[in-house]
Each structure stands twice: as C-alpha cells, then as structure tokens.
Amino acid sequence: MSSTPEPAPARLRTIPSRLLAGASIVADRLVNERLAAEGARKWHFAVLVALAESGAASQADLSRSTGIYRSDMVAVLNELANGAYIRREPDPADRRRNVITLTPAGRRHLERLDTLITDAQRELLAPLTPRQQDELTHLLTVLTEHHRPQHPRPHDAQ
C-alpha cells in the first residue's frame, strides 16, 4: 500500500471553492504554527494590528474592525492585557466602556508577530512568482470585498 495520496479526481481539482478551501487550510496551519511558537493567536495579531493602525479603540470598535465576535473579544483582550501588550482604561467620555490602547511592549510583540506572518506568507506563496503573488492577493481582495456582508453602522441607520 502506497503512502503517497492519490490525486483528487480531475473534476474536483477544478472547482474554485474547493481549491480556496484547501489553500485556506494550508494558510491557517502555517500562520497558526508560527504564532503558537510565540504563544500568540491570529486574533491577538488582528487586535494589535487594528490598534497600531487606528489608535485607541473601544472593545466594540475592535470587534467591528477585526471581525472578532464581541463575546470572544473579552478573552482576547484579557490574554493581551496579561502579556502587558494592551492597556484597558475607562473611557473619560463614557465611564461604562473601556478604551484599549497598545503599549510599547505590544508594539514590539506586533513587530515579532509581523515577521512570523510574513514568513508564513512567504512559505504559502513560494510556488508563485512575485507578479502572481500580487495578482492572487488582488483577486482574493476582489472576492472578499464583493462578498463582505454589509453591516450598517449606527450612524448609517438613520
């Protein structure tokens, strides 16, 4: 019995959604393995990136910008706060909510995670030329933007 897997039937190898799902599994594994080596997860990276790009934010704002469910956001923020990567402080404008800020340790941690994510992308896209990598990124962006759910923001719903 051969340990080499048989190729999938030709018809299955030409279904875009199946190909995307297979590539997604590989991409997820590569990213998760690298981040786990630093005791981090994808959600940690997403929150740190959001804070680095947009500055201080509420938990609800972070949930909307990262796509992390509000119920999961608290656990993610607890983990990041335990590592001193973020700081949670009451919002001076509304004491009922917290404002989350990135700490200097969080910036350094994000730099390390950025390196790991870049390495994972390099491995994932290794068989493609730089031009093909750019084109794939462009096409995936088009698909993602087209299928993104349209959630009205509170000020849009008037």
Question: How would you characterize this protein structure?
Answer:
It is a single chain. The protein has 158 residues and is mainly α. 60% of the residues lie in helices and 11% in strands. It has six helices and three strands, in the order H-H-E-H-H-E-E-H-H. It has helices at residues 16-37, 42-54, 59-66, 70-82, 104-124, 130-147, and strands at 57-58, 86-91, 94-102. Strands 1-3-2 form a three-stranded antiparallel β-sheet. Strand 2 (86-91) and strand 3 form a beta hairpin. The longest helix has 22 residues, at 16-37. The N and C termini lie far apart (66 Å).
What key attributes describe this structure?
158 residues; mainly alpha; 3-stranded antiparallel beta sheet; 6 helices; disordered C terminus
In short:
The protein has helices at residues 16-37, 42-54, 59-66, 70-82, 104-124, 130-147, and strands at residues 57-58, 86-91, 94-102. With 158 residues, it is mainly α.
